[in-house]
């Protein structure tokens, strides 16, 4: 049963679909201890935007919550969970202690398996207020919903500006090219076919990946920004943000746990979800403004966008937070490639 649980865990979401996890498992009689570590070689090789690992720490929390969510269906119950307080990314881990019990079968494995990231357009059918209220009541952290036109315009502007900085920065554009995959043969990364782009822009994106070219003119990126950010935001029922005050590694891990709880809850209600990691650039920038090769103009822009989010959205983007959009869709599920999680017994 433990091997079945581990096999299912590979479908947990992660930033850029990098799946940066390692599991170390020890068993003694009916007790099982699972330590979740980050494979920092995967993270640091491919993540420049998120150098300080906030997205990886969110992924760590996501996997921990997934184990708690699924374990009883596979004959285990949670005894306790420990998150050590570490500052270095490579030392962060989560220890989960389980004990064998009689399996309690439920729909949870099916819900977990059918959860996926949908980057395409949604129906503008409103999310039931009862669902939003239940999500808010479930959380000890702040969960904000943004539905007004003014808020939507602010979020769109912030995301577009941050994406533009990424497109025009040498290191960050190279990272984006690495994350995107031309087909489904790779077990990590995001297939270009899953981005929800038009046929013409998909072809241009494939060409750009094969022959990288950074264009200094901002207007040249208007089309891809429209298709990847503005249109999806407009064609959503709701935009939301989870926020935890603080910027410690534990804060970001807790954010991942809470986010996965939201995702599985809305999946149960037939709602689709897409996270946006754009604001991680702001959190990384304020951790060390001189780490990246940002120009003085780009630094000033990041500081302006941080102030805009705080003033207009009341979200402190220097702290642990994650935006996402919600909506309904009748489009078929698009699978993202997955690899088996590296497991050490």
What would you say this structure looks like, in words?
- The protein has 345 residues and is an alpha+beta fold.
- The chain folds into 2 domains: 2-115 and 338-344, no CATH class; 129-327, NADH Oxidase (3-Layer(aba) Sandwich).
- It contains 12 helices and 11 strands.
- It has helices at 2-9, 40-46, 54-70, 108-113, 129-138, 149-168, 170-179, 199-210, 222-234, 249-268, 280-287, 296-313; strands at 21-28, 31-38, 76-82, 93-100, 142-146, 180-181, 190-191, 238-244, 272-276, 320-327, 342-344.
- The strands form 3 sheets. A 5-stranded mixed β-sheet has the order 3-4-2-1-11.
- Helix 3 crosses helix 10 (249-268), helix 6 (149-168) crosses helix 7 (170-179) and helix 6 runs antiparallel to helix 12.
- The radius of gyration is 20 Å and the shape is globular.
